[in-house]
Amino acid sequence: MQDENPRPLLEVRGLTKRFGAVQALKGVDLSVLPGEVHCVMGQNGAGKSTLIKTLSGVHMPDDGEIFWEGKKVELSTPTAALSLGIATMYQELDVVDGLSIAENIFLGHEQASGGVLHVKKANSIARALLQRLGHGKLSPSREVGSLSAANKQIVSMARALSRDTKLIIMDEPSAILDAGEVQNLFRVVRELTSQGIAVVYISHRLEEIREIGDRISVIKDGQSTANNLDVAETPKAELIRRMTGRDVANVFPERTALSLDAPVVLEVSDLELTGHFDKLSFNVRAGEILGFAGLVGSQRSEIVETIYGARKATAGQVSVNGKRLVPGSVSSAVDAGIGLSPEERKSQGLILDEPIYKNVTLSTFERCARTGLLDETAERRVANEQIAALELRPADPLRPARTLSGGNQQKILLARWLVHGTTVLLLDEPTRGVDVGARAEIYTLIRRLADAGTAIIIISSEIEEVLGLSDNVLVIDDGQVLAQKSALEIDEHGVLDLVMKGSAA
Amino acid sequence: MDQQTGTPAEVPIDSTKSSGVMQTLLHGPAGRSLGLVVALVVLILIGFITSGDRFTSSENMLVILRHASIIGVLSIGVTFVITAGGIDLSVGSVLGLTSVVGSLTAVQAAASESTWLIMVLVALLVGAIAGFVNGVVIAYGNVVAFIATLATLVAARGLAEIISQRRTLLVTNTDFTKFMRADFLGVPVLVWIFALAAAAGWFLLNRTTFGRRTVAIGGNLEASRLAGIKVKRHIVSLYVLVGVTAGIAGLMMMGRTTSGTSTHGYLYELDAIAAVVVGGTLLVGGRGTIMGTVFGVLIFSTLTNVFTQNNMDTSVQALAKGAIIVLAVLLQQRFASGKVRKAKKLPLKA
Amino acid sequence: MDQQTGTPAEVPIDSTKSSGVMQTLLHGPAGRSLGLVVALVVLILIGFITSGDRFTSSENMLVILRHASIIGVLSIGVTFVITAGGIDLSVGSVLGLTSVVGSLTAVQAAASESTWLIMVLVALLVGAIAGFVNGVVIAYGNVVAFIATLATLVAARGLAEIISQRRTLLVTNTDFTKFMRADFLGVPVLVWIFALAAAAGWFLLNRTTFGRRTVAIGGNLEASRLAGIKVKRHIVSLYVLVGVTAGIAGLMMMGRTTSGTSTHGYLYELDAIAAVVVGGTLLVGGRGTIMGTVFGVLIFSTLTNVFTQNNMDTSVQALAKGAIIVLAVLLQQRFASGKVRKAKKLPLKA
Amino acid sequence: AGALITGCSSGSSDSSAQPSNASSEGNAAAGEEVVIGFSGPAADHGWLGAINSAAIAQGDSLEDVDLRVAEGTNDANLQISQVEQFINDKVDAIVLLPTDGAALTAVATKAMEAGIPVINVDREFSSPAAARTTILGDNYGMGRSAGEYICERLGDKPDAIVAEIPGVDSLPLTQERSKGFEEALKTCGLDVDNRVPADFTVAGGEAAAAQLLSAAPKIDAIWNHDDDQGHGVLAAIDSAGRDEFFMVGGAGSKNAMELIKGGDSVLEATVLYPSTQAADGVRLARLIAQNKAMSDLVEVEAPKRIVLNAPVVTSENVDQYLPTAFTS
Ligand SMILES: Nc1ncnc2c1ncn2[C@@H]1O[C@H](COP(=O)(O)OP(=O)(O)OP(=O)(O)O)[C@@H](O)[C@H]1O
Ligand SMILES: Nc1ncnc2c1ncn2[C@@H]1O[C@H](COP(=O)(O)OP(=O)(O)OP(=O)(O)O)[C@@H](O)[C@H]1O
Ligand SMILES: [Mg+2]
Ligand SMILES: [Mg+2]
């Protein structure tokens, strides 16, 4: 590709990076042209985030060279990268909850003279940026802590745009966005590239890559396996093979017909959480997968959290196998056989500094124990079983959860409830940030659990996923059930139409 | 007034299902101090009921304010480090050290006219140096703030004792002590200093890049670093700032007591931290309120005054004080916000 | 030995390219205490060089251990709350309260034979109640632990003063004081109690579900809650536990001083927290080490002993102590791990 | 430097604290070298600082004394281990100003049993067997003296307002002082109307006095237990511009005496509480260790109990006390 004329904006050669015993990058090359959308793909843990962190001054590479507009550079601090014109939207939300939207946008490069802030000016620029991103209704002075994850992502993007940049790196920006938001994001990306700004785009969703990408580079196990593939010319199957080294059929597992006399396991009646939703009633039968479809912010998370007792219902009740749960008591829900895989994996799900096996047995170590004495051998045994069954990588039960990639962290949460053996499983965004290979495995797993009689509720921002995986679907908007349908009776457009009508009303 | 989230008027809180203006007020920034205002008013009422005019006289109010002023200035500084997620246990002991070095300067420099200025500068410098040491050990040595400043607490006290040879040094510059003990427009200079420090602190925290970055670091250190903020440098400057406020407080103490000794400021760190946290600044960082701190300081100061007016036994005072601290925090929280998730997350931490 | 990650022998740390046994050792759980062992050995060497046999005599070692024992028991309890991400500032003051109530029980119950047992039970009960109050206020009142226990610190001292009428109460039960001051197998009973408390603490933290819950809550409270752990209840029981250790320490103090007074345990909370944190327990929670705490306590106790042996001036001691605290933490960190990110994140917090 | 124990040991009200006493010649001569351990509370205020410095200075001035000074502490546990350390080191005598008399009794007894004489200073042990000799300031007497002085001045005004600013309220010595004060006042029909405790520090004195002055609009007399905190008390009085009352101090710092001498402050008198007790203790320890007697006594051994006088220093007799006063 070197002979084609446009000089690369950014060129990376032979980058390596080691964290303690983990060799995260073993030699990565990358070449980004001005004005292109360059997609970086790879499985969970392949080293994508590590790569972009070395490009944004967060990590110093151990070896390798970085060229910026033809000149060799050293990116030792975030400031160094930012001042060259490299802005990054990180995979982990990098916003400050206690600050307003505008303050977050201008963090580190405040609108100020002599250290004194221009609040009005910052707010009006922020408002314009938000408008450009299609979120003019967000007030720039609103505290970011009160925003949904999706809206936080918008703030991150506005921040990247607020700088004078030549390259914007987006590490899985779409993971927490719904379909509409993704289109919005793409609109902005196109606008950027038309101005000659380059975008490095990371995503596990192949359709997105097809839609927005120009060229693709693939990383596998910390090594470049393909560079500068043309998006249009590379078939999906080949991409998957380059990433995973095998063929993965990215199809949803076949549904087993739900037997009509399957008993109702989870019964939700007139459930209410003031300020979020009211009078919600529905049932889930054994072996049924019930999907919650809706836009981000539609209170789906709040509903499952309330069922689980993590939030205290203001009215109504939840029963499992006819037994009523104590409102606001997680432990009574867990005892009754409900498990929740929460939306925010890191802050709500994992103890990041603890080893994998302890995270897996977090709900069951008491059961493994005898009269209060831990049985770590038993714990490690059951954890190892799940590590093997879910193909968790690395398969080292002693590795701290922090050092795992997102997809593998998600598997820990599934493993937790598999060990526990729940009769009701609530999955809030179970495939967020999970690679194609693992995603297929998780789908299969979910279906297998349902077939074994578990009642499952699944929330996903990807309507396709909800429809593909569930037996029945609740279309939810603003805490209200707009429709309850069999997943076969409705398609993506149908859901979106319902939601649009719902919010218009 | 007390928050960095912009003026309350601009915050529509939330479009979805907000239940009226009152809610907005109570849950907004104004509400965060409301509980404290209520607590203070209740205290004042109790004072009035039990001691009548003697309590509400303007002289007595000035006694309360003067008493509050030194801890007050200290607490303004402490608000910054706590907002940034740190803590400073050494402020009281640094206060003592600055008072000793300051007094000694005055003695050394004899009665020359410039003494005053030199003394002030030296005291502030000593405070700044102590803060600098704290900051460097914390930011570059990666020692947790609690331990680093605990070490400084011990060391500064020792140094002050060595320098003063454990004597109470008299502040010989009468110009200085007169100034510090004078009134200006009917209000004591000490109280003016407190008011100015509070105003400056409020401005610094809410209207400058320094303040924004302080809140940001406290809220999410990693994100701040990624945004290009020189986090370590900022942390050092924060501890220098609190050191300087300890220097100012030391000077006030020298003026108020006309003396410098290593015992000045003993255990003030706990009073300051209590005032800051009761005021609503989060001990885990990420939210700080100067107004809240001012209220916190005033509540404690008024409490002491009410106790004294009623000639209450010290032990009973202690018992009551413990209960009142908890009540004030509960009240403050109740008014502050309905953020259940937040509240659920915080209690254990720090 | 000191960590919850399983015994070192079983931990292959990392399969990929681990660079030798030494690395493994240094970066593993053993390494976390290694810095402390080095610090302690250095201190002992200094003691030996400066004071010779007088320092290394077995009597002197027992002096060090006896001195360490009371703060030691307290620190074991404090390790638990800090591991869970909390803090307890009230331990010293609760120690004083239990000693007062305990002594008074002995007086009340006169010289009957059962006195001793009643006294012990009452002291432990008082500690447990104080801890229960702390725990409830923190877990159910959502008051930050720092403030809640600061309030208890103040209130318990006041209560102890009221109960004792500010007098030093003599412990009249000589059976009890004799037992507490006796030796068993050549080792003082106080030291035995410390050793037992450390062993029990280690076991509880590393081998029981209680310990696992404690670490989990400190590591991520929300995740623990969502995994079904009864977080609030556990927090209460943690503070009860530390209250009980304060009661044990109070009994030890009564035995050692043959008296109970409200001033017993004054500022012990700071010593205990310093020992725990120097020992390597994270102040933000999620990692706790009983072994580290024991070393932390021994380091401080040895330090004081070396100072006294060398007839060092108190103020100079304070100065040196400050520096040594920081050095010990730096040393401990250096040996503890190469987790750069961690170190970068932690300093400011708490 | 400092007074000889012989000078102030009589307990009679006219005893003088003359700096030197000719009759000490025999004892002054250097004897066999003795090691004396000294442990006292943390020097966290002026008087205790003076106690420590005087003891150390005394140790330095006696060439046959090797004085070991342990860290000043308010922690009974630590002080006990210091004494244990002294016992292990087989010092010849221990001078102990306990942070709490009762709490240190057991270990002092242990020292005595080990054959090491213990000189108990200022805060008394709970058992007489714990000390070879006890040197005490007279706390109760101090309160009495202050009360009597105020009675003398205000005896004809039965509704006079009397205020008291004690030091750390939780210390037994404070209670002793207050008790003596109250009882003396009672004899002339007065009582304590306002009582605001401070903490022996300048800042504490200032804060307490500021509160007191605000709580009591008119006062006739104040007794402040400690001249070190008195510095702060006077600063507060000055700030408030009040002078309708007179004040009596305590302990007897140099500053206070100079003010009394100057005569233009509210401070009229101070009740002496000797800051040389520990220094006396060191001297006495040396005598005991060397098996000598006190020169002015016929007795061939040092006495068992010495209670130092608590005289009132006024402008009339201030010159007599100024030379030995401590600089706070
Ligand atoms: N700070 C760290 N310390 C130790 N190991 C790390 C660290 N950061 C990343 N790793 C390891 O480096 C490897 C690459 O991780 P990276 O986050 O770059 O993967 P990724 O390709 O972004 O995966 P995902 O798609 O899940 O986000 C993983 O094995 C991970 O465990
Ligand atoms: N009325 C509100 N006031 C303040 N914050 C709100 C409100 N409604 C929603 N939010 C915030 O938005 C977040 C997202 O809402 P919610 O979790 O209900 O959306 P969701 O449909 O579950 O989205 P996702 O698909 O991302 O799970 C909430 O966690 C909350 O922090
Ligand atoms: Mg990644
Ligand atoms: Mg959600």
TrEMBL record, chain A:
GO molecular function, one term: ATP hydrolysis activity
Chain ranges of the ABC transporter domain: 10-246, 260-503
InterPro entries: AAA+_ATPase (IPR003593), ABC_carbohydrate_import_ATPase (IPR050107), ABC_transporter-like_ATP-bd (IPR003439), ABC_transporter-like_CS (IPR017871), P-loop_NTPase (IPR027417)
A Pfam family of this chain: ABC_tran
Keyword Nucleotide-binding: yes
Signal peptide segment: none
Keywords recorded for this protein, A-Z: ATP-binding, Nucleotide-binding, Repeat, Transport
Family matches, as SMART domains: AAA (SM00382)
Gene3D superfamilies found in the cross-reference section: P-loop containing nucleotide triphosphate hydrolases (3.40.50.300)
Keyword Secreted: no
Protein name in UniProt: Sugar ABC transporter ATP-binding protein
Organism annotation: Glutamicibacter mishrai
UniProtKB/TrEMBL annotation, chains B, C:
Mode of membrane association: Multi-pass membrane protein
Subcellular compartments: Cell membrane
A GO cellular-component term linked to this record: plasma membrane
Presence of the UniProt keyword Transmembrane helix in the record: yes
Membrane spanning stretches: 33-51, 63-83, 89-109, 116-137, 143-163, 184-205, 235-254, 266-284
One example GO MF annotation: transmembrane transporter activity
Keyword hit for Lipid biosynthesis: no
Alphabetical UniProt keywords: Cell membrane, Membrane, Transmembrane, Transmembrane helix
Protein name: ABC transporter permease
